[in-house]
Design goal:
This protein is α/β, with parallel strands linked by helices. The protein is built from 14 helices and 25 strands. The chain has a seven-stranded mixed sheet with strand order 10-23-24-25-21-22-11, with helices on one face. Strands 19-16-17-18-12-15-20 form a seven-stranded mixed sheet, with no helix packed on it. A hairpin with an 8-residue loop joins strand 24 and strand 25. Bound molecules: adenosine-5'-triphosphate (ATP) and magnesium ion. Adenosine-5'-triphosphate binds next to helix 3 and strand 8.
Length: 563
């Protein structure tokens, strides 16, 4: 217990639960939480924070967590989202006690609405949506009572039953709670409980043509499931009095709502509405496009659930909204991948290197450690021959100052193989270098010269005859601004899309061992970055996604020099 506390920083949510456990606020009930996504989009990394809190805190106190779909809005909800949400919660490492749907509670919610009508606490209103808005008043002016507010219980029961029976068209009537049109809290000014919507629901079909509003469904769903702590984001703070009003006036299990801050990340949008727009308008290739902030996109890109959980945990919880740097997420991911990724050699922008004194037609194998951070990962044999590929960037005919890589007359190390010295180049008609010729020192096998000669640079390489040609997808930030919602008047967040967020390299040269790599398997392409195979790969064409680049010290030097 002590070590557990030492590892996890404390937070006010944990403190509240611990205190409620100590005072037995919920009697002998176990701690019960829920994660309540609306199935109208894919889960994103903001949801990961809510998931880690809902599941993590219940778990710490020996409690349970339900996955509950808040499916009260038939027009935007789909089975595809229901399925993806379950897969993503599991991928993140959590399992629910019960799988629930707010729609399962429609009959109970309806019975409770009848109860409130009978108690004179709810009424059917014939005002239009616009009129209701006008009557509601503003933050500075109280609202006005609807002329239908004082209908008799009998008339309300009759109209509400007929609403349910489908007698009235959409939008003609609503059921409202009778609370206080002068309340300083706008949510308490006779909020709408039910609206008429002749729409098919993904689970209940055409059984219902009236649907409960979020505020009328959420607290009662919590109560039905004996949820002790209903954690949600800060925008629901003003709804808390209404959440309690329904529970108190129905006399049901007193679930308690507690609010915490939303996760916001720089260069990232976490609004499902806007993410849906990106998908529908084809600014990205779907919800799991690796540039998206959804959990399925992170998975496809090669992020790991461990890194996401560690990141989310480190951002903590607060009572005010803030913003977290994307670099922090990347840091947690690099840290995780550095430990678990197998090393491999891959040349993204190949330049042919011919070793003139290497025996023609010969192939040999060099032994390479799979992961220097993990000896248990073993070694593998990598083929080497007289024609290899190196990165275009690793050779300069005329080297700039401080350039230690290959140039004519310069000796460098080919990783795990030999020392080589460049001598000449072959150019095409346009003057581009197409081949570099060099000689190697056979005594330096394994990458060290017996005479103790030092070289300043070690380069990765792939044997030309053995190379696997693959497509490599390099991702950059989807937006150019830290706050994608920062745009001039009349503009849109789409103006901040990064036109270079995806670069596709169609003929990278990879070491042959990568032919059997599977999606999700993490690799560090030495000196280049972290990668994982994309599920679009076929047996003819392997595709790799760049999870993250390694930090590039050279790019910084070049930038500083203004090159
Ligand atoms: P959006 O407003 O973009 O549609 P939402 O909050 O309505 O998102 P839900 O499916 O209702 O999405 O969210 C399920 C749970 O996840 C809620 O409890 C919500 O508070 C929480 N959540 C959503 N976004 C974040 C976020 N950025 N940070 C932390 N928790 C979040
Ligand atoms: Mg919501």
């Amino acid at each position: 217990m002590e070590t557990q506390e030492a590892r996890t920083p404390s937070n006010f949510l944990r403190d509240i639960i611990a205190e409620d456990v100590r005072t037995k606020k919920f009697g002998d009930s176990q701690i019960q939480t829920r994660f309540p996504p609306e199935p109208n989009g894919y889960l994103h990394i903001g949801h990961a924070k809510a998931i880690c809190l809902d599941f993590g805190l219940a778990d710490e106190f020996g409690g349970k967590t339900n996955l509950r779909f808040d499916d009260t809005n038939p027009e935007k909800e789909e089975q595809e989202y229901v399925d993806s949400i379950q897969a993503d919660v599991r991928w993140l490492g959590f399992d629910w006690e019960r799988l629930c749907y707010a729609s399962d509670y429609f009959p109970q919610l309806y019975a409770w609405a009848i109860k409130l009508i009978e108690a004179g606490k709810a009424y059917v209103d014939d005002l239009t949506a616009d009129q209701i808005r006008q009557y509601r008043g503003t933050l500075t002016e109280p609202g006005k009572n609807s002329p239908f507010r004082d209908r008799s219980v009998e008339e309300n029961l009759d109209l509400f039953t007929r609403m349910k029976a489908g007698e009235f068209p959409d939008g003609t009537r609503v059921l409202r709670a009778k609370i206080d049109m002068a309340s300083p809290n706008l949510n308490m000014r006779d909020p709408v409980m039910y609206r008429i919507l002749h729409a098919s629901h993904h689970r209940t079909g055409d059984e219902w043509c009236i649907y409960p509003m979020y505020d009328y469904a959420h607290g009662q769903s919590d109560s039905i499931e004996n949820v002790t702590h209903s954690m949600c984001t800060l925008e629901f703070t003003d709804h808390q009095p209404l959440y309690r009003w329904f529970i108190d006036n129905l006399g049901i299990f007193p679930s308690q709502q507690i609010e915490f801050d939303r996760l916001n990340i720089t260069y990232t949008l976490l609004s499902k509405r806007k993410l849906l727009q990106l998908v529908q308008e084809h600014h990205v290739h779907g919800w799991d496009d690796p540039r998206m902030p959804t959990l399925s996109a992170f998975r496809r890109r090669g992020f790991t659930p461990e890194a996401i959980r560690n990141f989310v945990g480190a951002t903590g919880v607060s009572r005010t909204n803030g913003s977290t740097d994307i670099e922090m997420l990347e840091h947690f991911q690099r840290d995780d991948l550095n430990r678990r990724a197998s090393r491999a050699m891959a040349v993204l922008n190949p330049l042919k290197l011919v070793i003139d004194n290497y025996p023609a037609g010969q192939t040999e194998f060099v032994e390479v450690a799979n992961n220097p951070e993990d000896p248990a990962a073993g070694t593998r044999q990598v083929p080497f021959s007289g024609e290899i590929f190196i990165e275009e960037d690793d050779f300069r005919e005329v080297p700039p100052p401080k350039y230690y890589r290959l140039s004519p007359g310069k000796e460098v190390r080919l990783r795990n193989a030999y020392f080589i010295t460049a001598h000449s180049v072959v150019k095409d008609a346009a003057g581009n270098i197409v081949e570099v010729h060099c000689t190697y020192d056979p005594a330096s096998r394994g990458g060290n010269s017996p005479d103790g000669r030092k070289v300043k640079s070690t380069m990765h390489w792939v044997s030309a005859a053995h190379a696997l040609t693959a497509e490599v997808r390099l991702y950059d930030k989807l937006f150019t601004k830290p706050d994608p919602n920062d745009y001039p008047e009349g503009g849109s967040f789409l103006d901040n899309l990064n036109p270079n967020s995806l670069e596709v390299i169609s003929d990278a040269k990879l070491e042959p061992s990568l032919a059997t790599a599977q999606p999700g398997q993490p690799f560090q392409f030495e000196r280049v970055g972290y990668f994982t195979p994309d599920p679009d790969s076929t047996s003819e064409k392997k595709i790799f996604n760049r999870t993250l680049p390694l930090k590039d010290a050279w790019a910084k030097i070049e930038k500083k020099a203004g090159a």
